[in-house]
Design a protein that fits this description.
Alpha-Beta Plaits, single chain, alpha+beta, 2 domains, 5-stranded antiparallel sheet, Ubiquitin Conjugating Enzyme, 35% helix, 6 helices, 5-stranded mixed sheet
């Protein structure tokens, strides 16, 4: 067991040297995150990684632009030799997948994809949580697919608000929903993108009034109604 952990620590140390500021690892959750200009992915290292049971890392998320790369990355992981250090190979495989994904020519704005949805469609989703306290969940909530902006509020209750490309927003909300929550309620779904006070990206605020300030007067009533709050 000690030898296993030493190998993992050595592998992660080398990886962080090769990709400074791009690789993060949570020892408690055994989760590794990698982010590049093209996209990002997250892995969970099973207890049997690099041990005799030779379990493979689990792909939690993977995306580039608006493209979900989880399945192709899972296939790449499955093709690697179990029992050996493979995180560097996974990073390289993801970089190739992400580069190929962003190289694909964009579909003309307003044209339909196979599902019949507008390629350039936007969305905003507001989620009410019984609470948001867990550090790992808070970090995950702040790391959506590139292109998605939003606001999160920890505590009782917890609130998540995400806005941006429809496919990316709904995909990330569905990913979060798979976590173990006491209560996870989608309170609002809008087919428009909300402009937030802080601009792009996702930020964490302390109180409900801070989210109201972020959404501004145009969206204040819709947000308060979703939260079952009276604005008066």
């Amino acid at each position: 067991m000690a030898d296993q952990e030493e190998r993992i620590n050595t592998e992660l140390s080398l990886l962080q040297t090769m990709y400074p500021d791009q690789v993060q690892y949570s020892a408690k959750a055994r989760e590794m995150k990698y982010r590049s200009a093209a996209g990002a992915f997250a892995l969970r290292l099973p207890s049997g990684y690099l041990s005799q049971s030779a379990d493979l890392p689990e792909v939690l998320s993977a995306s580039a632009g608006n493209k979900d790369l989880r399945e192709p990355l899972k296939q790449q992981v499955a093709s690697l030799l179990a029992g050996e250090e493979m995180l560097d190979s996974i990073v390289s495989a993801f970089d190739e997948l992400a580069e190929e994904a962003v190289k694909q020519p964009p579909v003309e704005s307003g044209s339909d994809n196979e599902s019949g949805k507008k390629i350039d469609s936007k969305a905003t989703v507001v989620v009410w949580l019984h609470h948001l306290l867990n550090t790992n969940k808070r970090k995950l909530a702040l790391s959506p697919t590139p292109g998605v902006s939003g606001v999160t509020k920890p505590g009782y209750p917890g609130v998540l608000l995400y806005s941006g490309p429809a496919e990316a927003v709904h995909s990330f909300v569905n990913e979060l929903k798979q976590q173990n929550w006491q209560a996870f309620q989608v309170r609002l779904e809008d087919d428009e993108e909300w402009l937030l006070g802080h601009g792009t990206g996702v930020i964490e605020v302390e109180a409900m009034k801070d989210i109201v300030a972020e959404v501004g007067e145009p969206r204040k009533e819709a947000f308060l109604e979703a939260m079952r709050m009276n604005s008066r």
